Structure prediction request, 130 residues.
Amino acid sequence: QVQVVESGGGLVEAGGSLRLSCTASGLTLTFDAYTVGWFRQAPGQEREGVSCSRRSGVSIAYADSVKGRFTISRDNAKNTVYLRMDSLKPEDTAMYYCAAGSPLGVYGNRLLESQYYNYWGQGTQVTVSS
Prediction:
């Protein structure tokens, strides 16, 4: 059974940093074959693709709202993807979800669309105070 588990959320002041982790297990392919994405959803808002890393980092994408502040990285040996979030703003407050998928022929910002992901975690809350 596939499990995707996020961790690292919390309460931070504006301008601060957090690092989220996403670990997957039970996948049928090796971890480096998967595209892993981070999404977020604030109350009353639609889910938004934040960042993703295709396979072994061949293609990486960021939403415009986080570009230059967030950095995605992955450690395939640990089946883990990280999202380093710097210069956090109150508008970054949301539940952050990690998801894994194996879309074919999809690159760049299209990978920020949730339709390409099969396995989802339960989320980790990030709250940024002003």
